[in-house]
Amino acid sequence: MSSYNDLMAFQRETQALGQVAGRLGWDQETMMPRGSAPQRAEEMAAMETVLHARRIDPRVAEWISSIDASDLDETGQAQLREVTRSYERTQKVPVELASQLARVTSKAQGIWAQARADEDVAAFLPILEEVVNLRRQEAEALAAGGDPYDALLEDYEPYTQASEIAAIFDAMRPRLVALRGACLEAEAPAALTGHFPEAAQLKLSHELAAAFGYRFDKGRIDKAVHPFSSGSGIDVRITTRVDEADPFNCFYSTIHEVGHACYEQNISQDYLLTPLGRGVSMGVHESQSRIYENQIGRGRAFTGWLFEQMQAAFGDFGITSAEEFYRSVNRVKQGYIRTEADEVQYNLHVMLRFGLERALMAGDLQVADLEAAWNDRFESDFGYAVDTPSNGVLQDVHWSVGLFGYFPTYSLGNVYAGCLNAAMRAAVPDLDQQLARGDTSAATGWLGENLQRHGGLRKPVDTIMHATGSEVSPEPLLDYLEFKFGEIYGL
Predict the structure, then answer these.
(1) Which residues are catalytic?
(2) Is 27 buried (19+), middle (13-18) or exposed (0-12) by CB count in 10 A?
(3) What is the pTM of this model?
(4) Which residues lie closer than 8 Å to 281 by C-beta, 6 or more apart?
(5) φ, ψ of residue 274 in degrees (nearest 5)
(6) What does the alpha-carbon distance between residue 24 and residue 40 come to, in Å, rounded to a whole number?
(7) Which residue windows are coiled coil (predicted)?
(8) By the 8 A CB rule, do 332 and 489 touch?
(9) What residues pair up with 230 in beta bridges, in sequence order?
(10) C-alpha–C-alpha distance, residues 128 and 136, integer Å
């Protein structure tokens, strides 16, 4: 076991350095002075150079080759599997390319934020061109003759191919389009209106985070342009954003990011700073954020409790009953922003991005044509035109930081969440009575025990199947959406 112990000691140091690099990214999004961006880009590039060197260190190959997997228990075999996968993958990427990617994406993030604020697509396209070219180079190196997009997808949803995801999306699309159309043709619930001060929103967002089990002794909430969760183990931080005309934006962004953060916080401490000590994939990660946000947080039972908290925080805000509030929370409406989309339309936003970024990586779509392609696809899918770049191609941070292959995991996470919700409801039949009191512990406890604590022990699909006892399918999600919104809209 000497080689295995040496390998794991080395991996813990590498994971710790990776957490430091992640903290630099968190700081850049939350507290870093805007003028510090050029220096931060160099810092990020330097960290990536160090990390890349460790990930391809020849000693890793020597340790791997001298370990007999049959001598290891289930955990040891999973650790070895993930170390081997990462090592073989990283070896294919030249260190200069990895360093340049870190440098350029750090710069691009700031340029994107300013271009978004200025509604200036042209200011963003040159740096995006650099990011796309670098990611294409990386994809080609990783694919070794295979599908470059699959090679990038491996970073976010290991052991999954784009063709498999495309098949799931193709199966979902007709029912989603039909449900969307039926909801928009029916009488809509009342929309929330009024002024909701920032301080009161942030106070209630902290209370919501605590209600879902977020540990503030091992995390914190800050504001960011684009909400995110950062870190793992015993330092997991989240961000939210505030619109004083729309408190749901803040509250459900918070609950969403708490889902991500609680997954990381609840992973067994036995896996701390090891390859298994983090969420197994972004799809599984998204299943946690989406089930927290939607099946639990937007359900009739929990919104009844949230209605009372809103009344206490804001007084009379025009909605007079818990049922009216529930319908307002789940209102299907036209809109441009993915992160603000209702459950019915959200996946259509993701499918749009999935198609565009596959075309970009394949070279079938050029960066110069991206805005026009986005606008054409959006109008085709949603029936109205994009009005501003910040509501269109500039709305998401992902492409600026090189996250190609990430977007499909959002909808895959919804599919996983549908499977988990069905299993959880069967296991906890009185769940709604507890949620109506603002008590999420039965739901979060079930997820913690059956999925979260295991971290990266199993492959993504196996993680979901282990938790649910069933094959992964989009049917539970689609059935849930049709029942829920059919009831709300009288379909």
Answers:
(1) 257
(2) middle
(3) 0.92
(4) 156, 157, 158, 160, 409, 460, 463
(5) -130, 170
(6) 8
(7) none
(8) yes
(9) 237
(10) 12
Count CA atoms within 13 Å of residue 74 on its CB side. 5
- What is the C-alpha to C-alpha distance for residues 220 and 206, in angstroms, rounded to an integer? 9
Q: For each of the chain's 491 residues, which pLDDT tens digit applies? A: 799 999 999 999 999 999 999 999 999 989 999 899 899 989 998 998 999 899 999 999 999 999 999 999 999 999 999 999 999 998 898 989 988 998 999 899 889 999 999 999 999 999 999 999 999 999 999 998 899 999 999 999 999 999 999 999 999 999 999 999 999 999 999 999 999 999 999 999 999 999 999 999 999 999 987 789 999 999 999 999 999 999 999 999 999 999 999 999 999 999 999 999 999 999 999 999 999 999 999 999 999 999 999 999 999 999 999 999 999 999 999 999 998 899 999 999 999 999 999 999 999 999 999 999 999 999 988 989 999 999 999 999 999 999 999 999 999 999 999 999 999 999 999 999 999 999 999 999 999 999 999 999 999 999 999 999 999 999 999 999 999 999 999 99
- Cα of 188 vs its chain's centroid, Å: 29
Looking at residue 339, its amino acid is: T
Helix H or strand E segment including 274? none
User: Position of tokens 């813990």?
Assistant: 12
d(CA 450, CA 462): 12
* CA 292/CA 275 separation, integer angstroms: 25
Q: Which residues contact 302 (CB under 8 A, 6 or more apart)?
A: 296, 435, 436, 438, 440
Written as six digits, the tokens of 482 are 């049709």
- The tokens 């993030």 sit on which residue? 109
Beta bridge partners of 404: none
Instruction: Calculate ∠ Cα 331-335-336, nearest 5°.
Output: 145
User: Which contacts (CB < 8 Å, 24+ apart) does range 333-339 have?
Assistant: 333/184, 333/188, 333/191, 334/184, 334/382, 334/384, 336/378, 336/386, 336/387, 336/391, 336/392, 336/395, 337/391, 337/395, 338/395, 338/396, 339/226, 339/227, 339/253
- Output the DSSP codes for 212-226: TT--GGG--EEE-SS
CATH code given to domain 162-489: 1.10.1370.30
| Separation between Cα atoms, residue 485 and residue 188, nearest integer Å | 11
Structural domain spans, the chain = 2-146, 162-489
Contact (CB, 8 A) for 177 and 482: no
Amino acid, res. 397: V
Q: Which of 226, 221, 232 is nearest to 249 (CA)?
A: 226
The size of the chain, in residues, is 491
